[in-house]
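During data preparation, we tokenized the protein backbone, and the record follows.
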Amino acid sequence: MDIIFYITAFVTLSSTLMVVTRHNPVHALLYLVISLLSLSVIFFLLGAPFAALLEIIIYAGAIMVLFIFVIMLLNLGKETAKQEKEWLKPKVWAGPTILSAILLAELLFLITLPNNTTSSQQTVDAKAVAISLFGPYLIGVELAAMLLMAGVVGAAHIGQHKKTVLHRFLKEEEPS
């Protein structure tokens, strides 16, 4: 089990490093998905399958859709369309594909193991998570929700294109 943990930790660290160092936001998002998936494998190995599922559903699913939506809001024009064609090349997908294949191999290995060898720790159920989130950590959960909402509002504000003409009849004629 230790070797699986170390391989997953390596995938997590390398993909997170790639998130920070990528200039292109879509490439960073691809590596962020891999980082979140590998982090969920670490949660599973540590005996928290519910936290692993939450990591996949909430972060790798919903939050990534939100990030992609914000990037789509920040569409910059013709140069962005040319850049999107570059993203479809295989060299862009090679890194995330290799890291995903490593995680898939680990997942298949963990599924084929007998139940008693995966974890000797007690699992945490949904009720215990809910009691802890909405009990002593309620302020932290509310602050995180407010921070996410502020990020969405800020991205929408930054992504707005300023219109110089209110109506086509109010437009000044261009000099010939």
The CA atoms of residues 126 and 173 lie 65 Å apart. The chain has a mean pLDDT of 79. The domain at 2-124 is CATH 1.20.120.1200 (Four Helix Bundle (Hemerythrin (Met), subunit A)).
